[in-house]
Amino acid sequence: MEPDRSRHDLAQLPKAHLHLHFTGSLDIPTLRELAALAEVPLPEHLVDAEALSVPGTTRGWHRFQRSYDMARLVVVSEEAMRRVVSAAVANDVRDGSRRLELQIDPSSYAPHVGGLVEALEIVMDEARVASRTYGLSVGVIVAASRLRHPMEA
After folding, report:
1. Phi, psi torsion values for 100, nearest 5 degrees
2. What is the DSSP string of 112-128?
3. Is 118 within 8 Å of 74 (Cβ atoms)?
4. Residue 1 lies in a domain
5. At 59, which CATH number?
């Protein structure tokens, strides 16, 4: 008797995506779309075929951080913030996830939407909308930069 292969196929198992960074969730098509809307030119290494592969020997941490910061520059409006959340949820559903925990430090986006509270409310509202739309349990984890004053947290 042949074993039931579906029981051993990891692609078939339910998944949970815990601690997905807001900006880090950007896929290349969404990054390109938001860059065009924000009129921000992107370096080719950020959107090339190897954009998600950052070997330390060829790109290194500092280049990765600069690239991450460049990606953050395309999220400059409420619409862009909502698009990031919606795309992250849609991508997780496509990958078989049943739970997504999206982590955000709202201070990077606050200047574009009227403040920290407003930035967080946008992300939380879109998480609720996307959760209902896609049928995925979505949580929001709020982070604070250790480089900023503790009162900001």
Report:
1. -125, 130
2. HHTSHHHHHHHHHHHHH
3. no
4. no
5. 3.20.20.140
**Pair 124, 140: CB distance under 8 Å:** yes
Q: What is the DSSP annotation of 78-99? A: HHHHHHHHHHHHHHHHHTTEEE
Q: What is the pTM of this model?
A: 0.86
pLDDT (tens place) for every residue of the chain, 153 residues total: 566 655 667 777 888 989 999 999 999 999 999 999 999 999 887 888 776 665 656 667 777 788 889 999 999 999 999 999 999 999 999 999 999 999 999 989 999 999 999 999 999 999 999 999 999 999 999 998 788 788 777
What's the structural domain count of the chain? 1
Task: Answer for the pair 56, 114: CB distance below 8 angstroms, yes or no.
Answer: no
In whole angstroms, what is the distance from residue 69 CA to residue 61 CA?
Answer: 12
* Strands, E assignment, the chain: 15-21, 97-104, 137-142
**Does 5 map to a domain?**
no
